Amino acid sequence: MLDILLHDGDIHEIRMARAPVNALDIALVRALRDAIAEAPSNGARGIVLSGAQGMFSAGVDVPALLQRDRAGVGEFWDEFFGLCGAIAASRVPTVAAITGHSPAGGAVVSLFCDYRVMAHGPYKIGLNEVQVGLSVPEPIQFAMRRVVGAYRAERLLVAGAMVDAEQAHAIGLVDELATVEQVVTRAVNWLADLLKLPPKAMLRTRAIARADLVAVWGDTTNLLDPGFIDDFFGDETQGVLQALVARLKSK
Fold it and tell me: pLDDT value at position 249?
């Protein structure tokens, strides 16, 4: 489910390895959260979060989520918010090595990293939740606004837009593009350069710069509006999600 690779000893790559598309079910979400939280204690001074070449993560595992009852759906989203909070509050810098497509939950996770390197070419990224019948909760909208600005975030989120890598780079949704084979290398190199700086000064400045993010996401207990769960079980959302699963099964 996860592969842990070491680069120069103190940069830990956490690679999602849940075939075929790194869909985020509750087990993968928990494994990611634990790995990110434990990495500094295991000697990591920086973390690279990566996926398979061509697919960073296809987002939430919708078929699995639809099998859960109300309590189970609430549990999943609490765990997902906990993962995002763990990245936001990580005491070491984290880079998203976006190795391919990154819709919905995959894009959300990347928002909480310090830096994003994406594969250029025929790959897309975006929070397309509206297209699949889900609203975007305010705490996630906040994270998106923080990266691309308020107006751009509104346009992307309300439309559920997916953008290609070049456009994502142009609007600041990702920081750097590389060939799909070099995404992880560029992520490691960026971290290595950062870690050459005087550590106390760098980490203190980083903490100040990310204080707004941590203020919202440092404690994810009760962060999710219960109305989001109500909407999930509403006729509109259930109809769109069931149709999506039917299309996936027919492929």
Answer: 80
**pLDDT tens per residue across span 55-74:** 999 999 999 999 999 999 99
Contact 14, 32 (CB under 8 A): yes
Three-state SS across 97-112?
EECEEEECHHHHHHHC
- Full DSSP string of 20-64: TT--B-HHHHHHHHHHHHHTGGGT-SEEEEE-BTEES---B-HHH
Report CA-CA distances (Å) from 148 to 1, 20, 108, 164: 31, 30, 13, 15
The confidence score (pLDDT) of residue 206 equals: 98
- Structure confidence by residue, pLDDT tens digits, 137-167: 999 999 999 999 999 999 999 999 999 999 9
Report the pLDDT averaged over residues 89-100.
Answer: 98
Question: Is 193 in contact with 16 (CB distance < 8 Å)?
Answer: no
- Cα distances from 52 to residues 75, 111, 184, 218, in angstroms, run 27, 19, 10, 29
| Contact indicator for 17, 99 with CB cutoff of 8 Å | no
Instruction: Please list the residues that pair with 126 across neighbouring strands.
Output: 103
Q: Identify the CATH homologous superfamily for domain 2-183+218-250.
A: 2-enoyl-CoA Hydratase; Chain A, domain 1 (3.90.226.10)
Q: How many CA atoms within 13 Å lie on the side-chain side of 182?
A: 9
Strand pairing report for 11-16 and 2-7 = antiparallel
Instruction: Give the domain ranges of the chain.
Output: 2-183+218-250
